[in-house]
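To close the chapter, one final illustration. This time we ask the reader to focus less on the individual chains and more on the assembly as a whole: which components sit near each other, and how the overall shape emerges from the parts.
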Amino acid sequence: MESAPILKLEHLGVTFPNHPVFNDLNLTINQGEIWSIIGKNGVGKTTLMRTILHQLRPTHGKISYLPSQGEVTIGYVPQFRNIDADYPLTIKDFVGLNLTGWKLPWLSAKERAKVQKILDQTGLKQLAKRPIGQASGGEKQKAYLAQALVEAPNLLILDESTASLDPVTKTELLDLVTELNQRLKLTVLFVTHDIPMAQKYTQHYLMMTPGKVEQGPIANLTTEKVWEGENV
Amino acid sequence: MFSYEFMRNAFAAGTIIAIICGIMGVFVIARNMSFLTHTLSEIGFSGAAFGVFAGWAPLNGMLLFTVVSSVIVGQLSARSERREAATSAISALFIGLGILFLSLANKNASYATSILFGSVIGISAGDVQQMLWLSLLVLVVVFVIYRFLKFDSFDHTGARVKGLWTNALSITFLVLLALSVSVAAQIVGSLLIFILLTLPAATAKYFAHTVGGMMVLAITLALVGVWSGLVLSYVTNFPVSFFIAAIEAVFYFIALGWQRLQTAE
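The assembled structure is written out below.
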C-alpha cells in the first residue's frame, strides 16, 4: 500500500533578480520515502531546500505540507557549520540546542530524556560528553544529525552533509539514516553529488539541470543519464 | 577601606558589573563580537560627552548613544564580511563626536580622562541603584531569551535552519550589550570596558566544559579582577582600570599557555 503524501510541490519556481533558478517544478513525496536530489553546483538544489524550509518564498507555484503544515516538522543537516574548536559545548549540549521555546534556560527532565534517546539512536551515547569542537568529522555529522532529529521531525533533509566524509564514515552515517527511516518512517531528502550512494540508499531521484527537472525511481537513474550533459 | 562610602559603593558597583560582564561576555565571545564591543565602548564615551554637553548625567548620554547606535551597528554589519569595515567607520565617527561634544561643553582634559578611564571616587549610592536596575533588566531579558540566544550564538547555522528570528535576536543582543557597556563604563571607563566584556569569557572558554560553566568561571574571573583592582588601586593610588586590565590580561595569557600545553600533549 502506498503511503500518504507528506510534501507536494506544484509548479514551483524561484527567480532571483534577473536569474530564474528553477521553474515549474512538480513533485510529490510520500511519507517514509527516501529521495536523492542531484544536480551540478549552482543548479538550485539548496535553493529548493531553503524554499521547502520556508527560508525563501517561491516566486511561482505552491508547496503543500500534508495533512497540514503544522503536522510536518523538518530536520535539516547542512554541509557546513561554523563551530569554534574551543567552544565549551559537549555533543549532548549541542544536540539540546535545538530544543527551544519560551522555557527555562535549563532542560527539563522530559527534554533531557529526548536528548538521551536520540544520542542512543545515533550511537553517540559514549561521546555525549566530548566537546563538539574536538569531535571527528564523522562524529560531528552524527551530532548534527542527532540535533536535527531531537524534536522527532517527520521530514529530514541532508544537504550534502556526507560530502566531506570518507567512504567508511559516509556508509556508516547513511546506514544509520536508513535504519531511522525504517524504524521511524522518516521521510528523507538526500542532496548529493555521490551517484553510487544515491543508487544504494535512495528509492527515488530528482535530477535538476538548468531549465529542466527530471524525476523517477532510482533504478532509472543510469550512469549514462547522469553523465549525459554532465549533470553532477 | 570599607569605612569610606565611596569604596563601599565601588565594591557594590564592581560586583554588579562583574556579574553582568561575565554573563554577557560569554555571548560576546561566542558571537565573535569583541571588536564591536570595543566600538560600543567608544560610542559610550561619545554619549557621555554628549550628556555633559547637554547637562545630563553621563550615564544617560551613554545609554542614549549606545542603544541607538547598537541598532544601527547591528543593521550595518549584519553581513559578517563587511562587519569590520563598518565597525571601524562608526568607531572613528563616534570618537570624533565625543571630542567635539567635550570641546563644546568646555570641559578640560581631566574630565575626558575620567570618562575614558573610569573613576571609583565618583560613584554614589544613587549610581549603584541605577546600575542595579539596568543590570536586572539585562539579566531578566537574557533569562527569557536564553535558549534562543544560546542556540544562535553557539550554532548560528542551526538557529537559522530552525527558523529563529536571528536578525531580531542579534539586535536585541546588541541593545543588551549597549546597556551593559553603559553600566560597566562607570567604574572601568568607556575605553577599557571591553576588557571585562571579553577577557574573562575568552579565558573561561579554555577551562569550562559547558556554557553554564563558562558563565560561572567568567563571572568569577571578572569578580577577582574587579575586587583585586579596587583593593590595589586603594592601596597604591594608581588607576583601578590599569589593575583590572593587567589582571584580566594575565588570566588570559595563562589560559592561552595552558591550552598550548594541552594541545602539545
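Residues 80-152 of chain A form one domain. The beta strands of chain A are 5-16, 19-30, 34-39, 60-65, 74-77, 155-159, 187-191, 204-209, 212-217. With these observations in hand, you are ready for the problems at the end of the chapter.
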